[in-house]
Amino acid sequence: MKKVVLTILTVLMGLPMWAQGGDVYERSKEYEWPTDPLVVEKLHQWQDLKFGVLFHWGVYAVPGMVESWAICDEDWVTRDTTMTYQQYKDWYWGLADKFNPVKFDPVQWAEATKQAGMKYMIFTTKHHDGFCMFDSKYTDYSIAHHAFKDNPKRDVLRYVLDAFRDKQFMIGTYFSKPDWHCQDYWWDVYPTKRGRNVNYDIKKWPHRWESFKRYTHNQMEEILSNYGNVDILWMDGGWVCPENNQDIDMPAIATMARGHQPGLIMVDRTIHGPYENYQTPERTIPETQLNFPWESCIPLSDDWGWVPRPRWKSPERVVNTLVEIVAKGGNLVLGVGPTPEGLIQPEAVERLQGIGDWLKRNGKAIYNTVATPDYHDGNMWFTASKDGRTIYAIYMLKEGEQRPATISWNKNLPKKGQSVRLVSNGKKVKSKVTNGTIEVQLPAGLKQQSVALEYRVK
Questions:
Q1: How far apart are CA 326 and CA 87, in angstroms?
Q2: pLDDT, tens digit (0-9, with 9 covering 90-100), for 126-151
């Protein structure tokens, strides 16, 4: 088989980006708070965690290409021109017989991300290609029924979630609402000429759509009833929605889901309403502070899944991204793609450790904090303790710059007579307030990276 060449569209982080393949996932324009007190309580717990990991892992890891999207007929995808479209899809489906992650080690994943300071996880149980990373009884198109079927860990989802529960992570499961492998979504009677959407007329074939709805409900129920406690159901594929004439009956899904998992956070991405319990701007950070739950999802490299030659973000860049997001009231979930063998590669582990080193010293300024109205002043970003008495001021050192020996800002000034201290070690630093500006002299010997300070304001 000839090597597949796939063109992946990318732009600089911080601008709108083609989200997992062609669709811009920014965020809904409105937010609706849930009314279930258990969900509200779980949301507040999640907001305290600030930093999580999102794993994309599936058959697309075998060639190291963008997840699922190669088989979509949209014109932004570039494929091997020596094959017909049907030959290409057959090749892609056949990757299931080559996906054999014999080194699969979810404990290594959990340890590496725990060291990074991550507090919650989201694992891709099924992407748009329909390949299940769990042993579903409703399809044979799963890791448990192909090349990995004889491995004792063939029910991958169980081992992943157990490994992360052992490290006290909050547990999340990603689930794709569309399923391009399912004959009740992409029916071979018709060509796939509607891009990512269902390829037949639902009004003409209502019984087929009802069959797809049952299939979707049943698979979600498998995940939520057979694998222990789940805190987050993170649903992708926002085009499957009533507004797009693809109604899968979210009220019934919610009733079923929370029957098995009381207080479950549901994230029906980009679909404003009672089942989008937090918003998910993708590869972007909102321009301003938001006063409801949200999470920027951004990969550690340019890609969500594993690719052979990734362009990595540095630990410093990820830390600064996290600082800005938390100051604006959000969480960061960082995408990490395990290798085809089932490991997090050393280059990723090294970067995760670098992020964790900063958080071990400065995490007090990140975890369990709340946003403060004056959250930004030049290079300074601010968070606050929950009682509002303490401000954490973080000087963001941009990559390639040297941090000055003296820093200053005008907002969130300390209470008169209060000292300013380094969060990393609690040591007092020299400071003075003059005409509404505070100047802080940083001690020599600090690492050339962002630095967090704390002081009382009330």
A1: 46
A2: 999 999 999 999 999 999 999 999 99
